[in-house]
Amino acid sequence: MAASVKTLSLEKPNPPAEDWKIVLPRRGKQKRQFRKTIESELQKPGQSWSPIDDQSDPESESKLMQKMLSYVQKLESSQFYQAFIDQILSHEMSDHLHRVSGSEEKLQMVIYGIGSIESYEPPRLQLSLAILMKRKFTWIGEVEVFDPVLSLTESKVLSALGCSVLSFNEQGRRQALKPTLFFMPHCEAGLYDNLLQANWEVNMLNQIVLFGNSFEAYEQFLSVCKDPIREERQRHIMAIRRFTKEFAINATSDDYFQAFHSSSWHFFRISHDEDLQNC
């Protein structure tokens, strides 16, 4: 995929910390930002986690559930979704999915950094896509979700939609001990790098399917804008590029551009005699 100038300009800059960060709203707004990170000093890897508030009520849960169901219905009837499904069912991508799954009947789905589905449209659309995939494909198994900005209301709605909300912050470092689909739309580059670092062995990398920001776009950006600090934080992304097969998502529709622009499927195929670079 040749990333356009428009695509590259929409890439988010890396924050100073490579882990999760909560960003305070601008201009006095009290809504939670759906930025994808939280400061490492606030959440250590594996530290137990609970929603940022401890109150919810049935009315709020019902309203959010109805809102989510309407987004799921809207997305399911869109041309964007049909093209998305057609891409998954294509011969080339199906071959990669079968290779990753191997003898396993199902791929577990892990969703990192979904953001606030209560406050913003892009997270609602992104979650709707994951829900529709789970409904459509029998090879998708259990769905686990984590984002440190989730409220108690959001956590309860996610559970009602069939997702398990993790009770600890993995910092994106889940090891793919079995075939796993990581659904990470528009996360920060540092979170993708955490995931790769935790799985920096041939067997585990070959068992990963990753949906998220285009690694090719990251590479093209760094080739134009030399930035040693950014290169260091994305070193695993750059090192894995030569083993990566990427399928870009067509998100030109105005309704879905913000939620899915610059997104791609990533498959890693590494033979056992390859020497992974030490990162």
UniProtKB/TrEMBL annotation:
Q: Where is the composition biased (Basic residues)?
A: 25-35
> Can you list the GO cellular component terms from the UniProt entry?
cytoplasm; nucleus
| Chain positions covered by the region annotation Disordered | 25-60
Q: Where is the SRR1-like domain?
A: 95-267
Source organism superkingdom = Eukaryota
Under the heading InterPro entries, the entry gives: SRR1-like, SRR1L
Family membership noted in the UniProt record: Belongs to the SRR1 family.
Q: Which PANTHER family match?
A: SRR1-LIKE PROTEIN
Q: By what name is this protein known? A: Protein SENSITIVITY TO RED LIGHT REDUCED 1-like
The taxonomic lineage of its organism, from the top, reads: Eukaryota, Viridiplantae, Streptophyta, Embryophyta, Tracheophyta
State the encoding gene.
LOC113725858
